[in-house]
Amino acid sequence: MPSPTRSSAIQAAHEPRPSPQSLTGNPSRSQNAPTGVDYEPHPEHSLAVPPEREQIVKCITRLYSGSASEEDMRVYAAEAVYDDPWSYCDTRFKIAGQWYGIPKIMASSRTLATEIVLNNSTTLAWKQTQEYTPRVVHFTKPVNSLVTVTLDGEGKVKYHKDQWNEKDYSHEGLGKVLKNLNGDYLTGITRPPGSL
User: Taking the model in full, what pTM does it have?
Assistant: First the structure.
C-alpha cells in the first residue's frame, strides 16, 4: 500500500485537470447544459486513436460494465489512483475493489456510447454514457460522464478520474475522508484477487 506521501506524489504528478467546458462544450451554447458542458457522447465525432489507446478504452468500459476481469485490470499501473465522487483509491488492488463491486450491486451495467475527446502523449479522455440498473430497485438510469486517464511511460493508467459534472474534485475535508474510507475498505467486501 502506498504511503500517504506516495499517494500525494502520484496525485501531484499524474492527476488530470481537464477543462470540461473546452473538451465537451458545444459551439452552440443552446446545446449545452447551464454548466457549459455536454457529456453526452457522439461516437461519430470520436477522435481516432492508436490500437493500444483503443484497448485502454475497451478494458475500462468493460470494467464499467461489470467484467471484474483481472486482464482488464492490468491496464492500471500497480500504483495508480482512481478518483470519482464516491471513491479515492491509491493502488490497483483498491481500484479493483470498486470494479469488482459493480456485479454485486448492479443487476446490469452497460456502456451505451463513448466519444474520445482528447488524446495526447500522456492523457486520454472520453465522454461516456453508462446505463446502470441496481439490483434492489431495477430502475434503469443512463449516466453521462467525462472519463480522463493519464498514462505512465509504459502506457499503463496512472490516474483515472470520472467526472459526473463540471466541477473538479476537492481532496480535502470530510468528502476526502469518506472517499478514502470507501477506497480503503471496499476490497474487504468485494474481494478482488490478491494478485492485483
Answer: 0.82
